[in-house]
Amino acid sequence: MDKDVTASDGEVQKEDSLDVLQSTQTVIKEALDKLGYPEEVYELLKEPVRMLTVRIPVRMDDGKVKVFTGYRAQHNDAVGPTKGGVRFHPDVTMDEVKALSIWMSLKAGIVDLPYGGGKGGIVCEPRKMSFRELEALSRGYVRAISQVVGPNKDIPAPDVFTNSQIMAWMLDEYSRIREFDSPGFITGKPLVLGGSHGRESATAKGVTIVIEEAAKRKGIKLEGARVIIQGFGNAGSYLAKFMHDAGAKIVAISDVYGALYDKDGLDIDYLLDRRDSFGTVTNLFKDRLTNKEMLELDCDILVPAAIQNQITSENAHNIKAEIVVEAANGPTTLEATKILTERGILLVPDVLASVGGVTVSYFEWVQNNQGYYWSEQEVQEKLREVIVKAFNNVYNTAHSRKVDMRLAAYMVGVRKMAEAARFRGWV
Ligand SMILES: NC(=O)c1ccc[n+]([C@@H]2O[C@H](COP(=O)([O-])OP(=O)(O)OC[C@H]3O[C@@H](n4cnc5c(N)ncnc54)[C@H](O)[C@@H]3O)[C@@H](O)[C@H]2O)c1
Hints:
Helices cover about 45% and strands about 15% of the residues. By secondary structure, the chain is an alpha/beta fold. Among the domains are: about 40-180, Leucine Dehydrogenase, chain A, domain 1 (Rossmann fold); about 200-350, 3-Layer(aba) Sandwich (Rossmann fold), CATH 3.40.50. The strands form two sheets. A six-stranded mixed sheet has the order 8-7-6-9-10-11, with helices on both faces. Strands 1-2-4-3-5 form a five-stranded mixed sheet. Strand 7 (about 250-255) and strand 8 form a beta hairpin. Helix 1 runs parallel beside helix 3 (about 95-110) and helix 12 crosses helix 13. The longest helix has 26 residues, at about 10-35. Bound molecules: nicotinamide-adenine-dinucleotide. Belongs to the Glu/Leu/Phe/Val dehydrogenases family. One of its GO terms (biological process) is L-glutamate catabolic process.
């Protein structure tokens, strides 16, 4: 069975998140070694500098109090304040939050933002909670972490199952506690509360730009290119739309229920129209493939945009794509990365491919700080500039240092943080 993000088997999920932390640490170690940093730098960067666990009591609609567990990890603040999303999910674990905070540091380094990485999570089942309960939980979380967050300390954002409404409640709670309006405390806000144009589709826009750059390197024209996208949620659905608009042929898409395939290209507008708010649509069709079958179909570009551990040593030999772009976090194992690279497939790793979200979050924070707001076009132009530069930097590092794209991305991502820590006299 696919390991679902909604899997109820807590043990399996815990093992997965430990794997994610361990494999992240493995690549960080390799990157620091390649860059010639001593062991103490790795000792500092292998774990967050600060990890807070909080208990949040919430009076539920039935009158009883339920106490939720939440986390906030701050990986490293040598470069600047930490930044990263808060996820609401029943399977959130401390190790997962730690690993995700490290990834945020790497992403910030790759796009050269003045941040370190942070991440938060609350163990809860938001799909079974009322609006009122979600508001109370969001406000309770901010009260519990208010001492360690702030516009110049640690800046939260949306993540899995959190959205602009939740960011608005969190902003309001923080502003009440501090007794002044501080829109730069959180990003991913509604536009009327200081949100940025282009934030919602930023991740998919970033992935689209990365695909354009990767396609150029492989001599593939996007017009008519055959694309497979796993996952039809926020990332996958916007991406399908952008790629479709760019003239690519989306031959397959999938969600948790299965995959749809048409070698002549799917009707993306129709599927977007029928998709529900959880990113599912394939359950409306009888003729479905499994996710596993879909990943091995013939195509030019494959984009895993759903969950982790999808391309492993078991199926990496059967992937037909020339380019694999990881829109999801951790969809390819380290073993599979090696296999794909040896086969000449251009793999764009998650820490590079999905930087669009944090980049536009940064733009939002900058606009909040200066109190001057940009047009959609300005946001898009600045995003393209940042992502093209980051892609070139990683691609060139991979070639000049003769390493795979994942290790190259980690080398680029970790360098600024390590240097900043050194200049500060920490290591
Ligand atoms: N949305 C963002 O801004 C953003 C930013 C960075 C990284 N990501 C990563 O992209 C991935 C998708 O995020 P999202 O925001 O689109 O999530 P989402 O919850 O909106 O959508 C997830 C999609 O994956 C599908 N899915 C769930 N379990 C599956 C399974 N076992 N097999 C196949 N499909 C499955 C769901 O049906 C849905 O279509 C995640 O790994 C996330 O961490 C997202």
